[in-house]
């Protein structure tokens, strides 16, 4: 089942709740972006502020996951408190279990499990919170060796979910995202493609999945881009390295900021249906949303390709980011 996100989200920028659903995450700047006391109630207040601001400014896609701490709970509570909000697309993910127990210093923050048992448990938890509001349910962080790509029993379960009207998708991670996407496109149940969406890390530094995402889009999948700001590396004040000069200069040329240019460059890809903002503050969100009004020139977009890193180097760097 395919999900038409462009029609549902005309702004083409969605809100991801990973940064505010749990106290620890790998985005740069969390020491100042979040309240000094990151209690569940404080993060709920921040999440509500972000969702209110996002909806008021035209965002219509909201993204959560079982492993994002209380993100699904916050989203469910926000929807319950806003009964007039009936026109949004709600997406979530299963496959990781949050294990940090509300600590930023845990040795392990989430545990991956793509088994049928994990799916059965987590889909029940998600449906208990989001009920019929769930539009999209994705396997979290699929890599080419994931059993989720070959487990026919799991595929049958996911096909039944699709028959209930929920689009089934997957998110990808790691230096071989393109291989995972192409493998997913070949998965069928009863002769029908199983996956109707793909959510992938793609940004000015990590562009390796671009061709595969175009193929997924051409095959009818909705394409959602995550980590378009590379966990903060493409946002002020972190754009300081000499090799980032093109991004800084184009931000000056357009009278905007680095985050706006980085998001606008990704949104300009013809296959990108929704680009996620992972903002942790309303000011960051408002800045991110300005990307929807910026049209980069072809020469500017071409110059930004200079920022691309080898996929292996990018993911090695990402793996070293601290859970702040």
Automatic annotation (TrEMBL):
Transmembrane segments: none
Matches recorded under SUPFAM superfamilies: NAD(P)-linked oxidoreductase
Positions of the NADP-dependent oxidoreductase domain: 43-308
Protein name: Aldo/keto reductase
Organism for this UniProt entry: Streptomyces decoyicus
